[in-house]
Amino acid sequence: MHAHSRADGPSHLPAGLTIAGEPASDHDLTIEGIFEGQITLPEQHLTIGESARVKARILARTVTIVGRFEGTVTATGRVWVQNGASVQAHLQTPSVVLADGAEFTGSVDPNRTEAAMHVARYRQKQG
Fold first, then answer.
1. Distance in angstroms (rounded) separating the CA atoms of residues 94 and 75
2. Stated pTM of the model
3. Given CB 3.0 to 4.6 Å as the disulfide criterion, which of 7, 39, 88, 101 pairs with 83?
């Protein structure tokens, strides 16, 4: 095992963990626990796992939702809402995939994704 293996791999918030805050990462992130806040991953992929309960404002390249999510998502790539997911959200993304068996209540705006992401990156740099 290389010394950089853990630092170079995806980040993971396990089931049983409850966090509130504003994490940002240079790596993909998987959430299995309970999270409330803002998640900023402009170049990464976020996975909201089957056991996850997330209430957040998300900025990411792509997002996969398998668990429960409430909030807003701005994704420059795609948002996947998987079978078994329960989503109440406003999605700003050019592409959405809703699997059979997924629950989705909300809206999708494919037009202002890039502008929203530029604003998010600027705010992230400002601290």
1. 8
2. 0.82
3. 101
CA-closest candidate to residue 113, choices 79, 71, 80, 81: 79
Q: pLDDT tens digits, the chain, 127 residues: what are they?
A: 223 334 566 777 778 777 787 877 788 999 999 999 999 898 999 999 999 999 999 999 999 999 999 999 999 999 999 999 999 999 999 999 999 999 999 999 887 666 666 666 666 676 6
Q: What are phi and psi of 43, to 5 degrees?
A: -115, 10
Q: How many domains does the chain have?
A: 1
Distance between CA atoms of residues 31 and 53, nearest Å:
9
Amino acid at 125: K
